[in-house]
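Hi, does anyone understand the following?
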Amino acid sequence: MFWIGWAGDGGNPWRETVRATKQQQAVIDRTVGVGEILLVNSYAGAGKTTTLEMATRARPKSRFLYLCFNRDNAEKARRSFPDNCECRTAHSLAWRQVGRHHDKIAQLRPRTVMELFDLAAPYLAVYAINTLNAYLHSADAELGAEHLEVARNTPRAVRKSILDVAGKIWKRMRDPGDAELPISHDGYLKLWALESPAIDGYDVILLDEAQDTNPVTLKILLDQLERRAAGLILVGDTHQAIYSWRHAINAMESVRRRAAWRMSLSESFRFVPGIAMDASLLLNRLKGDPVSLVGRGSATRRARAYAVLARANASLIEAAFEKARDGMPIHFAATKEEDSWDPDIPYKFQITLDTHHLWRGRPDAVRDPYMKKFRSFGEIEEHARGEGGQGHGRDVELGLQAQLVKKHGHEVPKLLDLLRRQSVGPDAARLTFSTAHRAKGLEWDCVRLLDDFVNPADTELLDSLEPRVRDEEINILYVAMTRARLKLKYPAKLLDWLQAHGDSRRDTSHWFLSAGSATVAGKPAKKVERRVVGAGKARPGDLAGIAARVAALPLIKDSASLHPNLRDARRQYPRAYEPWSAEEDELLKTAREHTNDPVRLARVFGRNIGGLTRRLDELGLD
C-alpha cells in the first residue's frame, strides 16, 4: 500500500511518496484497543517513527499521543505527524500540570548543595545529587537506601549522611516558594507521577525509544492501562538500550509478558547489505537474537559524510588530536551553533584537564566536583584499576584519561584548546567525531570505529561482566556499527572476529580496508585496486609459489593449544593467530610487490584480512 505523507502541519503535500513494507503494514493494520499493549521491536534504520506516523494517518478519527525523548524530536515529529496526533515529551506533560507552578527550574549544582547543607567536600554533594536523581527516575514512592549512588568503599556513616542530605534536598525542592533551591526537570516529573495523573483524551499512546525509558515514565503509562484510559504502543530497538547509567530501563522487556502483540521491523533503509550482515552476526552470536537484518540502503550513493566513533571520550579526544594538528576542520556531534560548536562541555574536557592537573601535582587546580575527591594522580590510576586491583568497579574511561595525559604530558591544555579552535559546524567540517552514545539517532556514509569498544573475541572479559553490563557493551558496539550507511572501518580485532565467525564469501567492499582502500579521514575513499603492481616483472605463478612456501612453514602455535573460538578460525584461515616469522615477513614483502589487493594477500598467507593488513601496517607496507 502507498501512503501519501505531509511536509508539515496544515495538510501540505509531502516531498515524497512512501511505500510501507509488509512488516510496517502489519503494524499499521493492527488495532490496539483500550488497555492493550503492542510492542514493536524496530532494528536500526528500520523506520520506526515513519511507521508510527503511517499508523496515525491510517486512523484519522482516532486521537493519538506520541511521546518521545526530547523537545527537538517532539518539534520534528509535529512537522510530520497528522493533526490527530499530539507530539509531546513526558516532561512537557508534567510541566503543564506541576512544573509551571515553580518559579525556579534548573539542574542542581554541587556548589549550591554544598553551601546550603554545609558539606565538607564537593564529591559528597555529587553523591547526594546522584542519589536523589536515582530516586526521581525510579517508580518508587519513597526515597530509600536502594537509591544510594556512592562508591563501593564509602563508609556506612557517610552513606547515611548522603541519604539524609538527598532527603532534605527533595523536601525543599518540592516547595514552590523556595527561592534558594530550584526544582529540576526530573523533579517536577516525579511530583506529577506521585499524583497518579490521568492522561485523558487519547485512544492510543505511542512511546518512541522505549528501550531507554525511565521507570517513572513507564509507571505513568502503565497506570493509564490500569485506568483503561487508552491503548499503548511501545516502539524501540531492544539492542539499542545503552543508558542504564542514567537509570533507564528497557520498557519493552519490562512489559513483554503483558503485551497482546509483539512485532518486528528488520528491513533497514539506512545501510547496505554488508553492514546488515555484520550487525546480524553480532546479534546472533552475542545476544542470541536469530534476526537476519535486511539492508536496503543505496550502495550507489556518493559518500559525503565521514565520522569517527569511540566508546569513550578520552579515546575520541586522542583521535581528534591527530586531525586537528593537521589543520583539519572537525565537528563534534551534539555540539551547538549557539555555543560556537565548542566540544568542551559535551565531551567533558574539564575531566581531562583535571586529570592533567593531578598529574602535575596540582590538586588545588582541579575544578570538576567529582574529580576533587582524588588527591593525586596515583589515586586516579588506582580507582581506574578497580578495588584491590582486581577490576571490580573499575573505571575504564578514567583509566583512558590517565593514559592520554601520560602520553601527551604538558601539551594536554594546548591540544584541548586546539580542538576547540578547529571545531566547526557539520557542514563546514571534513570529519565528525562522536562517542557511540552521542551518535545515537545520527548516521554518516562512512564510519571508522576506534579500538576501545568491547572485543567480541575476549570471552574471558565478557564472561566476567554482569549480564546487564555485558549486554549494554554489546549494544553500544551495535549502535556504533549501525551508524554507517555505506562503509565501515573496523578495528583489527573486531574485523578478525567478523571474519572468523561470518560467511567467508562476504562482500568486503563495504569495509574501509587498511590496504588498497585506506580512507584519508574526511576525503572520499579510494577504490580498492585489484591489479598487479609491477605486472611487467611478475609472472602469474609467482603468488602461487609464495602460497606454497607459506603453506610449508611450520606452525609455532598448534591448533590444539588455542581457545575453541580461535580453533574455529583456523578451519577457515590456516595461519590465523600464528606469530609472523622473519621468513614469512620476507615472503609478504615479495608478495606485496606483485599485488596490493588485501583479499588476495590474505588468501596467499592463510590469514584473515584484519591480521594481514595489521602486519602490512607494522612493516610499513600499507
